[in-house]
Amino acid sequence: MGRHSCCYKQKLRKGLWSPEEDEKLLNHITNYGHGCWSSVPKQAGLQRCGKSCRLRWINYLRPDLKRGTFSQEEENLIIELHSVLGNRWSQIAAQLPGRTDNEIKNLWNSCLKKKLRQKGIDPVTHKPLSEIENGEEDDEKTRSQEKVTEISESTSKSDAGSYEQKQSSVVVKAYEPEMEVEGSCSNSNNYLMGNYPIQMSFTSNDNLPNSISNSSTHWFDQTGLKPFGMNSEFTSFLPSSFCYKPSLVDIPSEDVSVSSDSFHMKNNMLSPWGLTDCETSIKENQTEEEEAKWNEYLQNPMLMLQNQAFEGLCNQRKPATNLSHDD
DNA sequence: AAATCCCACAACCGCATCCAA
DNA sequence: ATTGGATGCGGTTGTGGGATT
């Protein structure tokens, strides 16, 4: 027998929505908002449960829905995000404006899984099917680097009419706190440290706001879309999705110093805290830090892709504990 | 033309989590 | 600390329409 659903208990309607029901729900929410979903059906004059109304609104009636078929770029992004997030459909949907988790889940189950298999890729692990069959060990380093390459390629090829055309190059860096920093170098270094800011630099100022100068670096929040300090001039031109090429940003060694629990930025470098000379602590509690980082990854899966690649690159370096500016 | 199959999409179900009482 | 309602999420099923036999 099992549990009775709320609709059964209350003898409410189930199944497909009629245009009249849609109109009632749409009118009600347009006029009054949804508020408490459980009270919506009564207020809107619907013989439905609140859960059903919520779902109908989210998946069909919401005015900001994109509808229509998924573009190739959207499909690529879903595949990339799925490789990081797995079946966390709502989080994947959060990266695709106008798309719902249900829509993406359906697309995945009906189409993308099949496409991946046809390409010889296992849709669960995102590894080559042959590799799984042979039980081969992964080369994390190689895969991570390949992943960034793939993203770079897909973003550079994609959406040629919009953001990518305006930007000749955008580079991004996410900092990794517990990563050891390679010391002593006279030239520029790829430092891997810190965890919150993403740094982007622009190598062309074509179509960029005046505040973003050629070859300058700028700090953004974890989404990569909102600058620290909220400057509307920035947000107005930024892409609505991940339309930039992730790669490492070089920071001149004289601009930063690092100790075991903090890093220090000098020489008028732009920082996310709006200070030119600032210092921040790195949390000592590893468990909390890992948890926080995982939450961060969930909010911005691109960070994980980047960090996977960075870890791969970092593993190729010699470990070092001190940073010297002398060499 | 009818039956069957396949597919995409919509909706339901059950569980987890949150939060206020 | 417990409880129960509200909400969110992911897995699964149902439905309708087009393609195929």
From TrEMBL:
Domain HTH myb-type residue range list: 9-61, 62-116
Coiled-coil boundaries: none
Start-end of Polar residues biased regions: 151-167
Compositionally biased residues, Basic and acidic residues: 140-150
Keywords for this protein: DNA-binding, Nucleus, Repeat, Transcription, Transcription regulation
Keyword Transcription: yes
UniProt-listed SMART domains: SANT
UniProt GO MF annotations: DNA binding
All residue ranges annotated as the Myb-like domain in the record: 9-61, 62-112
This protein's GO CC annotations: nucleus
Chain intervals for the UniProt region annotation (Disordered): 123-167
Location(s), subcellular: Nucleus
Pfam families on file: Myb_DNA-binding (PF00249)
Protein name stated in the entry: Uncharacterized protein
Native source species: Pisum sativum
